[in-house]
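Budget justification note: compute hours in this period were largely spent on complex prediction jobs such as the one shown. Inputs:
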Amino acid sequence: MALVTVTIDGQTVQVPAGTSVLDAARSIGIKIPALCHDPDLTPVGACRLCVVEIENMRNLPASCVTTCTEGMVIRTNTEKVIEARRTILELLIANHPLDCLTCEKSGSCLLQEYCYEYGVTSDIYAGEKHSYPIEDSNPFYLRDMNKCIVCGRCIRACEEIVGKSILDFAYRGFNTKVGPFMDTPIGESECVYCGSCVAVCPTGALTEKDMVGKGRKWEAKKVKTVCPYCGTGCTIDLNVKDGKVIGVTGNPDGDVNGRFLCVKGRFGYQFIHSDKRLKTPLIKKDGVFKEATWDEALGLVASKLKEVKEKSGPDSIGFLSSARCTNEENYLLNKFARAVVGTNNIDHCARL
Amino acid sequence: MTNSINEITGADFILACGTNTADCHPVISYKVNQAVRKGAQLVVVDPRVTDFAMTASEHLQLKPGTDIALFNGMMNVIISEGLWNKEFVENRTEGFEALKEAVAKYTPEYAAEITGVPADKIREVARAYAKAEKATILYTMGVTQHTCGTHNVFAVANLAMLCGQIGRESTGVNPLRGQNNVQGACDMGALPNVLTGYQSVTDPAVREKFGKAWNCTISEKPGLTVGEMMSAAAHGDIKAMFIMGENPVLSDADAGHVVEGLKKLDFLVVQDIFLTETAQYADVVLPAACFAEKDGTFTNTERRVQRVRKAVEPPGQALADWEIICRLATAMGYPMSYASPSEIMDEIAGLTPSYGGISFARLEEKGIQWPCPTPDHPGTPFLHAEKFSRGLGKFNPVEHVPPDEAPDAEYPFILSTGRRLYHYHTGTMTRKGMLGEFFPADYLEISCEDAERLGINDGDKVRVATRRGAMEIAAKVTDTVPKGVLFTSFHFAETPVNMLTNPKFDAIAKIPELKVCAARVEKA
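Corresponding output:
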């Protein structure tokens, strides 16, 4: 692939032709803020926060939609650039509830992060603010359109990744709002609740409902593991606080899925802490289950299996292993059936 | 899968057969969407007009159980129009003449008669598949859950080999497996005829290897499949069962027969995370840790072995399944002890060539796709690049055979089963939280035409019955199913459709015909 050479803040870098200025800068560790840009989605240059100065260009171009050309000289941190970014942030928060004290997104909100970085503290432009009711029309996620900065990431994720295209911009100008067809509540739309929009939202406009009030983003320990549902094998992060799974989020390093999941993978984790979970071994006596110790239960199973094996032979015992258990566990049950009991009667629901 | 999931985005033609990908493998449907956005053509073969089928450029709405006629029809077109990949057929396959002969009678018109798919559509799709640069086939249980399931897969494989659409990146034959570790359970020898890595119990060298490693004598007699075990239990030949993390009372065909078998057992142990419908019949129930409470690995549908990590403690006295098995084996007089699942994987790698190079240390950052024979092997993103496992790819010509049960005067409908987006298998996990609240009960899909004729309105309680059982369920009057076809899922104990399904299975794979049985429906 052809390479082009550009200079960014005095550093010379070679990048493949077609690389955006934003990606070129990020590739050498230069931070450029961006709200509407997402590496998994088409760049649109909407938020203008990623503006830079480029020699021989008239205005401040948005780096996410500007392609590197040979010999380009780029500056990402001039006074003009900083001032422009600060103004953009000031304009954004002029119509944004500054309720970071209680906002679920606090700590992982890009708007908050950039305002902190650029020292933007309050709304210096007094003007009209939106006052949409918080939309709670489905069990999975909340929509607070007062916090939406109309970056359009959710729209693009729904269309480009998921292929549902439920969302688009409705209305015009100040009233521009993201919504489904006819701006109905999401609960009345064709949404399938995969939460991809929530995953890409840079602010508190979209949040996982079940995670509300369960803990701050920085308090949750993320444990990288694999989704327990279908065979796709999506990587998920279990968000853990005080020994409880408080939510599931995608992991950008997921081999198969990146950050994107389906409704089951993202929202179907409550069974982990269900009060219906089995907590002790049970032995049935006179048709009723009675709690037992491990020693009692395993002693009974061992003696019964031995008895049946001795009386009727190993092939009178059958094992069903599990497509839900780990490889190691399936291996051990296979070993148990074949080595300990001595039968090949082992199967699982591979055909269902 | 012969290929990797991410390779789907690179295909320019996707033939999705008997898969409701958007509902059953949503994230894989995202890859299909990305391919389509780049210009790939998507063709869906499904008797139902699913949302996924609606996104296709062509939807071949075949009659249930007529897949072979469709694929043979496509091959007939490809051969008669000279579109097959001569080089691939010549160098990589054997048995072409027999295939040519077998598909000769499946003219598009003849195939159309059997399948209900117009002949011109069969021609069009056959040509597009043959001419595509990188065509990939996705399929799931719509292809396999038939008495001719294995033959259906042969037909799919014949088509791919005929066109040389296999063995390259983004081209192949890709069964999408339905459960998080169904691939791994098969790989690990949780099958009656093979040990780990599909090493046959009938091979004396394999038995000797495992016998030595495990200090035992491996039986040379292949065991029984789940369906056969349930029948043997009902006949009194199987006297005790140990069921780990399965719920056959809801998941298996002809569940009434399953219950009969379980009731007849002298002793039943169920090890699970919930007191399932199956556990109710147990003599002893052992509480297990769920996926979030233990370490280990799962292998996904693209053969990728990935790390499962413990995030929280199990409730009460529940233990990881591997710990329970170790303790039970020890109690049986066979000492079994491992410090961690990592040690178990080392033992697996030592006995399983395809997992030979896999260890927890290597899996820390990224998953590895088997075959991975040695510690320095990078894994295998797609299979059959240079040659097939057996050398030359063998064409296995197959003939259309109708399903075991055809609709008749008494049972005039075809009842088919599958899954819903919001639930998983027997609902033990998905019905415990938000998903259960959102989708609390299932319904029976019935066509507008049939509903009108029978005076059934949307939401009416109906009684659906087959030769094996009956249940009541709410009707959903919809265009999703064609006239004469009924559909529901097996997720709900309240509407246990497997009390009705046909356990008649494929002679080779022993897979029951869950996709077709004769049924009748009436207002309850």
